[in-house]
């Protein structure tokens, strides 16, 4: 592993919400209720050209539900022709056998399916869609049959934090290549429903100690986390590309109208991909500069692990305290 840097010279990944339209109304969704216009397919193709020219290697389509985009396969084929690695995250409800074959033919590098409980009724309730668990697991089967590499995403909350190993069982059953255990972000509906679903700092501590120990002892499947506060747990891998939150250091987010934000969970526009130069934004944005050079506040000023976690999740600190420099409210130290 090379020297850790404050941020990469160019984004590694663009997380692109082509649309906020969705057939679900999940209890933690960051974008549900957002009324943002969408650019045309022709404009999307021109954005693909800009991303390719900037030498950004990865695009991940999110949303919203990407499978509601009528030109998704055409857009993906074009992006792949520009030597981009394209992935997406889906709830799986619309991913039947024919769609799985279409995704394979379009050239998707990976397709991720979201599953938030191994208990069908709990998953369906959390996602506010009856039958969604059955559709999600069927999507994993369809993707495997079509030869598409799959990942699986699970947002850790009160409904599943004591049963996370059941996600590994599902992932192994469907030959999932990587399991992402995401932290609860407290943005959008996640903010509105945080009292019902978010864990206490001590519960996060207990979860990460157990989950990290399980990951380090189980090499059969790649388990990934995205929470900087894990730096306080013994066994945490400190050889990351960057320290702390990756948003604005490794990746950027594009909204349906082309607006660029540091990540999908931070509601601060720093430019627009249609009209602005992405490299200029990446290198000169005042907002990104502040995120990359946070000033420790409160208990962070005397914390021995600050250089590793850099205050925790920037999006969560902003959402819950109003200041990116404040300690992550999930931190138990």
Name the features.
13 helices, alpha/beta, globular, 333 residues
What's this, in brief?
It contains 13 helices and 10 strands. The chain has helices at residues 41-53, 72-81, 97-106, 120-127, 132-146, 165-173, 189-192, 194-197, 201-217, 278-284, 286-292, 306-309, 314-321, and strands at residues 13-17, 58-62, 85-90, 110-114, 150-155, 178-182, 222-225, 251-254, 259-261, 271-272. The chain is globular and about 55 Å long.
Structure description:
The protein is α/β, with parallel strands linked by helices and about 325 residues long. The protein contains 13 helices and ten strands. The chain has helices at about 40-55, 70-80, 95-105, 120-125, 130-145, 165-175, 190, 195, 200-215, 280-285, 285-290, 305-310, 315-320; strands at about 15, 60, 85-90, 110-115, 150-155, 180, 220-225, 250-255, 260, 270. The chain has a ten-stranded mixed β-sheet with strand order 7-6-5-4-3-2-1-8-9-10, with helices on one face. Helix 2 (about 70-80) packs parallel to helix 3 (about 95-105). The longest helix is centred in the middle third of the chain and has 17 residues, at about 200-215. The mean pLDDT is about 95.
Q: Tally the helices: what do you get?
A: 13
Poorly predicted spans: none
Structural class designation: alpha/beta
* Biggest pleated sheet: 10 strands, mixed
Number of strands: 10
Task: Classify the helix fraction into a percent range.
Answer: 25-40%
User: Roughly how many Å apart are the termini?
Assistant: 28 Å
Order of helices and strands: EHEHEHEHHEHEHHHEEEEHHHH
What best-fitting shape do the alpha-carbon axes yield? Answer: globular
The averaged pLDDT comes out at 95
């Amino acid at each position: 592993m090379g020297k850790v840097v404050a941020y990469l010279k160019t984004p590694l990944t663009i997380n692109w919400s082509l649309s906020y339209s969705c057939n679900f109304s999940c209890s933690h969704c960051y974008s549900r209720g957002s009324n943002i216009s969408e650019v045309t397919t022709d404009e999307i193709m021109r954005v693909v050209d800009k991303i390719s020219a900037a030498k950004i290697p990865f695009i991940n389509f999110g949303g919203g539900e990407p499978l509601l985009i009528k030109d998704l396969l055409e857009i993906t084929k074009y992006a792949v022709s520009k030597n981009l690695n394209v992935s997406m995250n889906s709830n799986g409800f619309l991913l039947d056998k024919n769609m799985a074959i279409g995704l394979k033919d379009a050239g998707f590098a990976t397709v991720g399916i979201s599953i938030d409980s191994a208990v069908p009724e709990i998953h369906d309730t959390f996602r506010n869609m009856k039958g969604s668990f059955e559709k999600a697991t069927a999507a994993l089967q369809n993707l495997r049959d079509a030869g598409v590499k799959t990942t699986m995403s699970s947002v850790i909350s009160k409904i599943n934090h004591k049963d996370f190993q059941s996600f590994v069982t599902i992932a192994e059953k469907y030959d999932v290549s990587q399991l992402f255990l995401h932290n609860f972000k407290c943005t959008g509906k996640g903010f509105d429903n945080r009292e019902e679903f978010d864990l206490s700092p001590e519960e996060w501590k207990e979860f990460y100690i157990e989950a990290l120990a399980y990951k380090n002892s189980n090499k059969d499947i790649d388990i990934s986390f995205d929470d900087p506060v894990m730096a306080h747990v013994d066994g945490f891998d400190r050889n990351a590309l960057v320290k702390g939150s990756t948003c604005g250091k490794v990746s950027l987010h594009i909204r349906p109208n082309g607006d660029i934000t540091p990540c999908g969970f931070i509601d601060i526009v720093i430019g627009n991909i249609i009209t602005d130069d992405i490299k200029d934004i990446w290198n000169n944005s005042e907002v990104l500069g502040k995120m990359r050079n946070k000033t420790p506040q409160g208990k962070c000023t005397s914390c021995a692990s600050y250089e590793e976690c850099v205050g925790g999740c920037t999006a969560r600190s902003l959402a819950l305290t109003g200041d990116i420099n404040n300690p992550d409210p999930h931190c138990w130290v």
